[in-house]
# Entry
Amino acid sequence: MLQGGMRTAAMARTINCNIRTVRHLRQHNRETGQTADRPRSGRPCVTTPAQDRYSRTSHLRDRYRMATTTARVTPAMHNSSISAQTVRNRLREAGLRACRPVVRQVLTRHHRQQRCLWAQTHRRWTRQDWQKVLRLH
# Structure
């Protein structure tokens, strides 16, 4: 657009960004011949691309797999193990999500017996009996 003779302000309005951004990109293009962003320093990735692919494909095969399971079984190449949070981060980068386990109380035999007993004792209750307890109108 800029090489076609479009003014900097018009281009900034067209792509909906600040005029300084367009000026900076134009100057960077003159100096280097490209507008690509420069690489930045940062913490290096703990996982290799192969480990990322492994976690991605394992979650695509099993949608209900937890990140902790994937972290535990991922083959370690450069490091001894990876954390579940790292797996979650890599899945999020790939547009996937790890499954969260359902947390609920385990029903024991005693719980089932008590539930069955309650159901048997209340089986013949009428609507009037339930209205006394639930205050239905």
About this structure: The mean pLDDT is 86. The helical segments are 8-15, 19-32, 49-61, 67-73, 84-93, 109-121, 127-134.
